[in-house]
């Protein structure tokens, strides 16, 4: 059994595409296809089939996929453990992060980590909090930094940073000029919201609930999949929205939108999360200690 074949097979299943898997492997599509064909011949079974939604694993392919994931994960752990005997830490670290920490916090942390361990290859995957948790539980990433906690004995959560939720509007919006604004006023304006599964959306729902309001009370005109897209929609006059202060400040400074500062900000936490059975891997342990030192 060849680990390179298993790695290629895992990526084809996850990407549902030979070309995308090949690009991730920095290889050619024919080479990737040959690896899968060789694996099928070695096992004597067809592992993949083409469907309307892309390439899907057969029943046998599903079994091979889960076994390959376990083998790959165990091999990575062994490599990391062996690297622990070396003077310089080497290997790979894949960080999953929700949009706000992934955009405004994680790059700085990685820079500090890479200054200490330049031989470690670091990758960031951005997604909503739920998707990041799913990838972590499926061993597709090593650690997560998200805006939600989850009750699971497989995961460890630690608060790592805080942010606040604030209201933004297009320039010269009536809310900006109101002398004594009331939160109930937002019900009369078009609203831009984040997509389901977003940590920002969950915090917004909690904030509205505290003021005896809910998403159903708002005139939502569009649901959008990223904070930057929400800012652009507000800038274009599509509506108003609640977003992260970390994201809002640069946009307001650039004159793109305005912040309504007459409401009390709603604080939120971001959490560093890792699998309890991998947190002592040398790379994960060193990265964790760097973030929480002092």
Fold and architecture overview:
It is a single chain. This protein is α/β, with parallel strands linked by helices. It is built from 12 helices and 11 strands. It has helices at residues 3-15, 18-25, 29-43, 59-83, 99-104, 106-116, 129-137, 174-177, 199-210, 227-235, 245-253, 282-292; strands at 48-51, 54-57, 91-97, 120-126, 143-146, 155-169, 190-194, 219-224, 241-244, 258-260, 266-275. Strands 3, 4, 5, 6, 9, 10 and 11 form a 7-stranded mixed sheet that branches. Strand 7 (190-194), helix 9 (199-210) and strand 8 form a beta-alpha-beta unit. The termini are far apart. The model has no long low-confidence stretch (mean pLDDT 86).
Q: Outline the low-pLDDT stretches.
A: none
What's the total number of strands? 11
Give the structural class: alpha/beta
Instruction: Bin the helical content.
Output: 40-55%
Summarize the helices and strands and which ones pair or pack.
Elements lengths: L2 H13 L2 H8 L3 H15 L4 E4 L2 E4 L1 H25 L7 E7 L1 H6 L1 H11 L3 E7 L2 H9 L5 E4 L8 E15 L4 H4 L12 E5 L4 H12 L8 E6 L2 H9 L5 E4 H9 L4 E3 L5 E10 L6 H11 L2
Parallel strand pairs: 3-4, 3-5, 7-8
Antiparallel strand pairs: 1-2, 5-11, 6-9, 6-10, 6-11
Helix pairs in contact: 1-2, 1-3, 1-4, 2-3
């Amino acid at each position: 059994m060849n680990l390179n074949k298993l790695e290629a097979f895992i990526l084809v299943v996850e990407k549902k595409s030979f070309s995308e898997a090949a690009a991730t492997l920095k290889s050619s599509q024919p080479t990737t296809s040959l690896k899968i064909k060789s694996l099928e011949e070695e096992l004597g079974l067809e592992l993949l089939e083409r469907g309307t939604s892309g390439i899907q694993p057969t029943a046998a392919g599903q079994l091979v996929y889960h076994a390959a994931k376990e083998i790959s994960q165990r091999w990575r752990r062994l490599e990391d453990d062996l690297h622990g005997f070396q003077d310089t830490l080497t290997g790979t670290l894949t960080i999953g992060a929700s949009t706000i920490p992934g955009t405004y916090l994680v790059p700085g942390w990685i820079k500090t980590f890479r200054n200490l361990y330049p031989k470690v290859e670091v990758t960031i995957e951005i997604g909503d909090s739920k998707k990041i948790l799913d990838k972590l539980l499926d061993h597709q990433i090593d650690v997560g930094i998200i805006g939600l906690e989850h009750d699971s004995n497989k995961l460890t959560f630690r608060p790592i940073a805080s942010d606040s939720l604030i209201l933004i509007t297009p320039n010269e919006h009536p809310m900006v000029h109101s002398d004594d604004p009331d939160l109930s006023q937002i019900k009369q304006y078009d609203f831009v919201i984040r997509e389901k599964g977003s940590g920002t959306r969950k915090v917004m729902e909690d904030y509205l609930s505290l003021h005896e309001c809910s998403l159903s009370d708002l005139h939502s005109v569009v649901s959008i999949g990223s904070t930057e897209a929400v800012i652009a929609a507000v800038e274009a006059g599509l509506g108003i929205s609640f977003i992260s202060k970390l994201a809002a400040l640069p946009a307001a400074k650039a004159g793109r939108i305005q912040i309504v500062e007459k409401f009390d900000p709603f604080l939120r936490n971001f959490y560093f999360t890792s699998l309890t059975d991998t947190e002592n891997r040398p790379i994960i342990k060193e990265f964790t200690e760097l973030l929480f030192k002092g």
